[in-house]
Amino acid sequence: MSSSIASDQDLTNLRAQIDRSVRWPVLLFFTSAGFWFLATIILGLMSTWTLLSPDAFGDCPAFKYGRLQSAHTLAMVYGLGFNLAFGVILWMMHRLCRMPMKHSLVPNIAGHLWNIALTIGIFCVFGGIGSGVEWLEFPKQVGPALLVAYIVIALWAFVPFTQRDQPQTFVSLWFLVAALFAFPALFLTANVFIHMAPSAAVVSTAVNYWYIGGVQFLFFLPIAAAAAFYLIPKVSGRPIFSYSLALASFWALILLGGWTGLHRLLGAPLPAWMPAVSGAAGIVILIPALMILVNVHATLGARFRMVNYSATLRFAYASIVALFLAAVLNALGGIPTLSKYAGLTQAVLSTHVAVLLGVFTMAGFGAIYFIVPRLCGCEWPSGRSIRFHFWFTVYSILILVVTLAVGGFWQGNAEFMLYGSWKKIVDAAEPFYIGQLIGWTMLLMANFSFVLNLWVMVFGQGRRAGSPTLLHEVHELDQPMFDDRAKESSSQA
Fold first, then answer.
1. Cβ(358)–Cβ(322) under 8 Å?
2. Could you give the number of structural domains in the chain?
3. 252 within some domain
4. Could you say which of 20, 50, 205, 441 has the lowest number of CB atoms within 10 Å?
């Protein structure tokens, strides 16, 4: 009994030591992600507004739709997405491998390099010096700086994996390690074929769309799945329902994820099998998405009602539901009869928003609500503000995805069927643009509140009580569930 108590105390001390070692790099990435999220939303608002009123910001070229939309995309992908990914990966890799971080100043410096290079790239886009390549709009000279920063951060995340002393590899580690290696391979390949050794324009376009699909399905989605597979068992106190199912979903996602993206090129002067296989992969990828959803839902089991109380569980579970819905949306885009209408419209952006905001960012929020109290030594100030953040974020993302998908399909159909002049088609799409403005405004309200709460936590001004901040007061019928959870000890780090 005494040895067990001593072992538990040693593990608690080790976790505290790990949290202290990763504190500043992780907080840097989380606060940077918060800043970039606000920038993403503001740029999204501005770009959508120019669709309603092209001269809304005068004759300044920097504030026309093309440059605003490019800056918005870069801020969303490399600002919000990667900063959030870096924070989650660093903390989870060190926690799961039970190793404190050494020389934490190095990933801090790399994080600043990443954000400075990205900022320079976005200002270049505003100045008209961008490349014009989707998701790689910054000048090609910015790419090496981003790659160097990424490699340094990835090395600091991967080192504990190579030095861990546990024979077991947790499910989350599979997804994290795969994501760590996937991005540099995608980024290098895309830059070589597009910038360093450019070939025919159609080949560069195919590589570009392959890169976009790969980053979504081989980087962002695996990290979201890793966060869910760690956080949900950890908070609920229940082991993962099926390791075999998790392993099957992992390999299916890895094998199929690289084939997505090319279905947008249906009808392009490419071998017909390329968009056809991509569309088929987009449909088949529904299987691993469903596997992950079933596994996560079964893991919660009888404790599913804890989702009503835990911010971490609510965001993590919502991200997995969104993962399946995003896979459905992507599959619809791969159906030829639909793709020919929506392939070159805003409907494509609906998948990007669903994956980056609906899946990945929601999982990231769940991780932040779990991790930050352990780094800052205080609890979140208010359950009410978390509820506001959750519901406004969910509704705003739904509004954005629906208006982008339906509006894009409607506009593509109108173009295809030649319903009147181009101006008439654009003017008729105004209700969808207004809906997008509403969505971005709601998202700004929700996440301005979140960023304020995050800074309150960073400065150590959160609630001092020892128990976690719950979304609601626990109902007496659910109290036994929490009592049972409190008696259990998790063997996972």
1. yes
2. 1
3. yes
4. 20
